[in-house]
Amino acid sequence: MAPVFSHGDLRLYLLSLLDESPRHGYDLMQALSDRTGGTYTPSAGTIYPRLAKLEEEGLVTKTVDGRKTVYEITDAGRAEVAARAGDLAGIEAGLADSVRLIADEVRGSVREAMKSLRADLASAARADQDAAQRRSESGAATEDASRSESREQVRRAESLVAEFRANVRADLRTHVAHGGAVAASVVDDLARALDEASRSLIRSLRG
């Protein structure tokens, strides 16, 4: 994925956040994460050097408030934000696009995983029905054999569900660990797909 902020954009965006109100470093990092929908969570090693540079340029000042250092924009900083209002609008638009792209990628991954799960469950159900039909036609299968086959198919289904759960969990955690966001709508899609898969399985078993 392309960087959330292009060269120089983070500097301007920090100034715009300080133009809203004085903030301490952690507050700025949290604000950046919130404004980007979780797609970008900067480290202290990214934020503080830039704040120090802005201070050197006379665009911000800092004061110590207890254990926190609070940064405040200066008149010169406000003037730069005002002069670059067009650039700032472009940054905001780019951030909105990044959030939408991430959300679309996650929804697409969940849909593909659900599609694969439904196919596997349907295949397992068909295999169980075919086996039952063959046993009925041949008359050779005993009740114990039928139960053994059913237990095997149950174990297979449980394995498929466990594998899906592990894969989705790993994908989501990796996505979030890399600064990605998981919107509530994505989880809603997952819940609906799982419910649909469950209903499909029940219909196949009763069929």
Number of domains: 2
- Helical proportion? over 70%
Give the integer mean of the pLDDT values: 79
Structural class: mainly alpha
Q: Give the assembly state of these chains.
A: single chain
Measured distance between first and last alpha carbons: 46 Å
Kindly list the characteristics that best describe this protein.
about 210 residues; mainly alpha; Arc Repressor Mutant, subunit A; 3-stranded antiparallel sheet; rod-shaped
Task: Outline the fold blueprint.
Blueprint: H1 9-20, E1 23-24, H2 25-35, H3 44-56, E2 60-65, E3 68-73, H4 75-83, H5 85-138, H6 143-177, H7 184-206
Antiparallel strand pairs: 1-3, 2-3
Helix pairs in contact: 1-4, 5-6, 5-7
Task: Explain what you see.
This protein has 207 residues and is mainly alpha-helical. The chain folds into two domains: 9-83, Winged helix-like DNA-binding domain superfamily/Winged helix DNA-binding domain (Arc Repressor Mutant, subunit A), CATH 1.10.10; 102-206. It contains seven helices and three strands; from the N terminus they run αβααββαααα. A three-stranded antiparallel β-sheet has the order 1-3-2. A hairpin with a 2-residue loop joins strand 2 (60-65) and strand 3. The chain is rod-shaped. It starts with 8 loop residues before the first helix and ends with a helix. 17% of the residues are buried.
Q: What is this structure, in a nutshell?
A:
With 207 residues, the protein is mainly alpha-helical.
